[in-house]
Design brief:
By secondary structure, the protein is of the alpha+beta class. It has helices at 26-29, 44-54, 59-63, and strands spanning 15-21, 32-37, 42-43, 68-71, 74-76, 81-82, 88-91. This is Molybdopterin converting factor.
């Protein structure tokens, strides 16, 4: 049987996703955190879980259910998929006048 050589273009590689943290979320880790995501992406609800796991000081705030996600500058629901190359941000409720 011939031996197969794998080329990087044939292998799905995880890439880093930079997640901007807004408002009080930035207090613990600064303005952003980085996660590795697969090429198939992940739903926003899994992004919350991944951030909570990798950055435990954010877990209580994210568990409260009031934090929203923005992907490519658009507020998205929890079932939206974040893909490699997207921009992502998490932000707490805001009020203004």
């Amino acid at each position: 049987m011939p031996r197969r050589t794998w080329h990087p273009s044939e292998v799905e590689l995880n890439q880093s996703l930079n997640v901007e943290l807004c408002g009080k979320l930035a207090d613990s880790y600064g303005g952003s955190v980085t996660l590795d995501i697969s090429p198939s992406g992940l739903p926003v609800r899994e992004l919350f879980e991944a951030v909570s796991s990798a950055y435990p000081l954010l877990a209580p705030i994210l568990a409260g259910g009031r934090i929203r996600a923005c992907v490519n500058e658009t507020i998205v629901p929890d079932d939206a998929i974040i893909r490699q190359g997207d921009t992502a941000a998490l932000f707490p409720p805001v009020s203004g006048g």
